[in-house]
């Protein structure tokens, strides 16, 4: 083997899911070798040395014995020889991994996440540890990887992502200084605004994770969208008997909304656990997840017309359709990586997030959701449970008094007008004898009342999450 063999390796051919996790790991090793080789060549060039294809390091002109360059030549030669020896081993892995690429990535998310999970379980412990330690970006947001592993990988990426965004901010600022009128006639300034918001997202996530050991960062993506994406679980999704995923709507973003959503998720988890305990099923575990995995419509932004843009986004389903694919894959990944045979899944869609949730349940195969609750919904593009692949009587709707968004009906009509079960949003006593305050307006559904207890709406969410819908209070 010589250095031209290393140059010829195409790591990208192994980077997609069809190559499996083995291919992804080998691709990472190949890129690492290529980057190290490039650095050695630069170091040689700086000293007017040449690294030949066979690994020999030479000076451009004859160098007398004892010349300082002799030591540099010796050191570089040793490093190149070590790299070639390592490349021989990686080359064998590369050929094996490339041979395993037998099919394109499936269009069905179930196939993809099942394969990812199988590949992960088939990796030896050392191979898993190597990915988490040296290439966490490969698996941090890969559906099918166990949530506990994704949490470790995502936490490890926070500082790296922060440095990248800081570098981006400096580069964009330099571009603005070079542009006429300071970038006011271009979109460069918008790029800086979004990079700064993502830095704030990272700070908010880091602060949130310090608050509670039960919080798990099961998704963190600061590259795909205009704003940052993240999902925080309360408890371990991989070992839970009951899981819920909450999808929010207008004006939700990681910096301003994730902490509130995570705290609401914790209250719902605690209440669901309490209800299971009173039902004699206290051994069953509950995990609730706050999911901001798409660019929800925003009223604020770097431009003068962001309010108008948000209104247009809310009136259309484009962002919800984009969210639906990501959410569908996320559900499939949770099921594939669960250690439970048949965990109970609940999908919770609030506001515009109810549209995204309804679309996710209608594409890319059955995701295994048993119960669905839409609340504060402007429409869900479905009129029957069968359209959502959920059993009759297991789709619920809540529409609070004073909620101007609920009942808007922009996307297929008001869901409370269809055959779905309508749950109470009024004040009163729940079956466990606790007084629950009403929910009013668009934002109070999962919040506590002045008495410190979940409102009637939050109670209803909790019993559905717990798989105890018979305890729900109907409208």
Would you summarize the structure shown here?
This protein is an alpha/beta fold and 475 residues long.
Task: Describe the structure in your own words.
The chain has 475 residues and is an alpha/beta fold. 46% of the residues lie in helices and 12% in strands. It has 12 helices and 12 strands. It has an 8-stranded mixed sheet with strand order 3-4-6-5-7-8-9-10. It has a two-stranded antiparallel sheet with strand order 1-2. Helix 7 packs parallel to helix 8. It is elongated, with a radius of gyration of 27 Å.
Number of helices: 12
Categorize the overall geometry.
elongated
Query: How many strands in all?
Result: 12
How many angstroms does the end-to-end distance come to? 74 Å
Order of helices and strands: HHEEHHHHHEEEHEHHEHEEEEEH
Radius of gyration: 27 Å
Q: For the largest beta sheet, what order do the strands appear in spatially?
A: 3-4-6-5-7-8-9-10
Overall average residue pLDDT: 89
Low-confidence stretches are none
Estimated structural class: alpha/beta
Strand content: 5-15%
Helix content: 40-55%
Q: What is the makeup of the main sheet?
A: 8 strands, mixed
